[in-house]
Structures are given as C-alpha cells and as structure tokens.
C-alpha cells in the first residue's frame, strides 16, 4: 500500500489562521508609513534650519555684526544678534529650498516662523492648527534661536 504525503485540511486551516493573526497585528505598523515620513521630514527641516542658523552666525561674526539688534549680511539675509530673523528675509533665505513654495509652506506670527508641508494651509495660524510643523523663534539678546518640531498631528 502506498502512503500519500501532504497536508490535511486541518493543518492548512491552522496555518492560514496563524498567518491571518500575524498580518492583523503587523499591518498597523506598516500602514502608518506616511505619518512616519512626515515626522522625519520635519526633523530634517529642523536640522537644515539649525545648520543654516549656525552658518549665518559664523558669517555675521566674520562681518562683525553678531551683536547688532538688526542688520543684514552681504548675502542679503536679515539677522538679529547674528542669527537669521524669523521672517522670509531671514531664515527662509538661509535654508535652501524653503522659499521655493513647492514642498514647504510657511507663515510668521509673533516673532516666530512656522513651516509645514505645502497644501491646503495658508498663514501661520492655519499651520499651527495642523500640529505638524517646525517652529523657528529668532534669537534675542539673551538667547540663541529656538527650533522646535511639533508632530502630534502628522
């Protein structure tokens, strides 16, 4: 008598159930990729702003303008206390690609510049309401610029 090899119907059903349970538990982690990508992009923008502010400060020291309340560098970037101001003529000019109006939208309010992904938002208050933005607060006489990522709404 020849013995047949293979799987029984019960073994097949058990394997399918196990694969289904694994898929259900793993799927939410992989389906949230857009949120993770947005948060990472905001962190990248924060890094770009930090680097740009440091480079501008170095240039302002070279030009002897690091202690002035308001000035402009030879590269046409407005500064306060050596760092870019929180306006389109300051940090937006310093960060390459931020002023292209392609990928990013920005707005200013109360000495802060808010930047987020371009789309349906217009103005600083709309950007703040998204809870998915980078907040750049300009330097003061006692503090360097503050750059904060708010990503709870991404």
Structure description:
- Keywords: Membrane, Transmembrane, Transmembrane helix.
- Pfam families: N_methyl.
- InterPro entries: N_methyl_site, Pilin-like.
- It comes from Vibrio ezurae NBRC 102218.
- The chain crosses the membrane at residues 12-31.
- With 154 residues, this protein is an alpha+beta fold.
- It has one domain (15-148).
- Helices cover 42% and strands 19% of the residues.
- The protein contains 4 helices and 7 strands, in the order H-H-E-E-E-H-E-E-H-E-E.
- A 4-stranded antiparallel β-sheet has the order 4-5-6-7, sandwiched between helices. A 3-stranded antiparallel β-sheet has the order 1-2-3.
- Strand 4 (104-109) and strand 5 form a beta hairpin.
- The longest helix has 30 residues, at 33-62.
- It is elongated.
- The relative contact order is 0.13.
- The mean pLDDT is 87.
H/E order of the elements? HHEEEHEEHEE
Low-confidence stretches: none
Strand runs, count: 7
**Mean of residue pLDDT values:** 87
Spatial order of strands in the largest sheet: 4-5-6-7
User: Percent of residues in beta strands?
Assistant: 15-25%
Distance between the termini: 65 Å
**Envelope shape:** elongated
Per-chain topology:
Elements: H1 9-31, H2 33-62, E1 71-72, E2 78-80, E3 83-84, H3 91-94, E4 104-109, E5 112-117, H4 124-130, E6 133-137, E7 146-150
Antiparallel strand pairs: 1-2, 2-3, 4-5, 5-6, 6-7
């Amino acid at each position: 008598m020849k013995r047949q090899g293979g799987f029984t119907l019960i073994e097949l059903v058990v394997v399918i159930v196990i694969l289904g349970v694994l898929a259900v538990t793993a799927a939410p982690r992989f389906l949230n990729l857009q949120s993770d990508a947005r948060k990472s992009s905001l962190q990248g923008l924060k890094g770009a702003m930090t680097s740009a502010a440091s480079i501008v400060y170095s240039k302002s020291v070279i030009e002897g303008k690091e202690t002035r309340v308001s000035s402009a560098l030879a590269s046409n970037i407005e500064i306060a206390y050596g760092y870019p101001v929180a306006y389109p003529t300051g940090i937006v000019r310093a960060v390459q690609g931020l002023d292209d109006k392609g990928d990013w939208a920005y707005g200013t309010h109360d000495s802060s510049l808010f930047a987020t992904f371009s789309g349906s938002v217009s103005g600083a208050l709309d950007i703040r309401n998204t809870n998915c933005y980078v907040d750049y607060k300009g330097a003061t006489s006692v503090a360097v610029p503050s750059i904060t990522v708010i990503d709870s709404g991404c």
